[in-house]
Amino acid sequence: MTSVRYVAIGDSFTEGVGDERVDGTPRGWADLAAEGWAASLGESTEYANLAIRGKLAWPVVDGQLEAALALGPTHLSFNGGGNDMLRPGTDLERIVDAFVTVERRCRENGVTPILLAGADPSGGLPMSKLIRRRGDALTAAVTNRLRRTEGIVWAVNWTDAALRDPAFWSPDRLHMNARGHHRVAARVLDALGQRVPEGWWDLPEQGQPHLGTRDYYRDHVAPWVKRRLTGRSSGDGRAPKYGEWITVAP
């Protein structure tokens, strides 16, 4: 048995949306962290990813946490709240409660929690000031509530000013591209005390150019609004990409 069994839960950020392989499947920072972890250790790691795009914080906890713990991991990463912040009437303390629940259940099961704050996309989005304000408040609230709790691996990306650069974001302006996901993976590995592969903190610029305002609203904002009005989610009907352990070789 390998020494590291890492499972990730969350939404599109953890699923890897925005960093797609040639075949269209998402890769993302969690996949990259598992690969970098194996390379740093010089041994295979076991990796699972139960994240599904579009999920709010508590549906992630209710639908993914116990299934993830049942796999018997050594480490579990969690991020949530990004989709909540895009909706009116967001209760930030309720989101903080989700982080506290994940930490508690990990502690009860002898699992090391890796808690992430996502990167800040607000500069490219409508209602940017509101989203930035909510993200600042959520990041502060989570870290304040759990700052005295030992054994947490923190990977806080929201306060990384470099990640606000459009060059780290995909054309939808909401999800990071490969460059952004590599930087987040680098932060996770660094927080774990592992070696970060060369160049991951700041890959050369790449990816598709961002759309102009009119095309952006047509291609990305309008479909999002339609899903909200119809009560649908981008994750409806999707299964986890790695619902069971896969082996990641060094």
What is the element layout, followed by pairings?
Elements: E1 5-9, H1 12-15, H2 29-41, E2 45-49, H3 57-70, E3 75-78, H4 82-85, H5 92-108, E4 112-117, H6 128-146, E5 153-156, H7 178-191, H8 213-230, E6 242-248
The tally of helices reads 8
> How would the global form be characterised?
globular
Question: CATH homologous superfamily - what is it?
Answer: SGNH hydrolase
Distance between the termini: 15 Å
CATH topology: Rossmann fold
Task: Profile the largest sheet.
Answer: 6 strands, mixed
* Helicity level: 40-55%
Mean pLDDT: 91
CATH architecture: 3-Layer(aba) Sandwich
Q: How many individual β-strands?
A: 6
How many structural domains? Answer: 1
Query: Would you list the SSEs in sequence order as H and E?
Result: EHHEHEHHEHEHHE
Radius of gyration: 17 Å
**Which class of secondary structure composition applies to the elements?**
alpha/beta
- Per CATH, the class reads Alpha Beta
- Low-confidence parts: none
Question: How would you explain this protein's 3D organization?
Answer:
The chain is an alpha/beta fold. It has a single domain, classed as Rossmann fold. Helices cover 41% and strands 12% of the residues. It is built from eight helices and six strands, in the order E-H-H-E-H-E-H-H-E-H-E-H-H-E. It has helices spanning 12-15, 29-41, 57-70, 82-85, 92-108, 128-146, 178-191, 213-230; strands spanning 5-9, 45-49, 75-78, 112-117, 153-156, 242-248. It has a six-stranded mixed β-sheet. Helix 6 links the parallel strand 4 (112-117) and strand 5 (153-156). The radius of gyration is 17 Å and the shape is globular. The chain starts with a strand and ends with a strand. The relative contact order is 0.19. The model has no long low-confidence stretch (mean pLDDT 91).
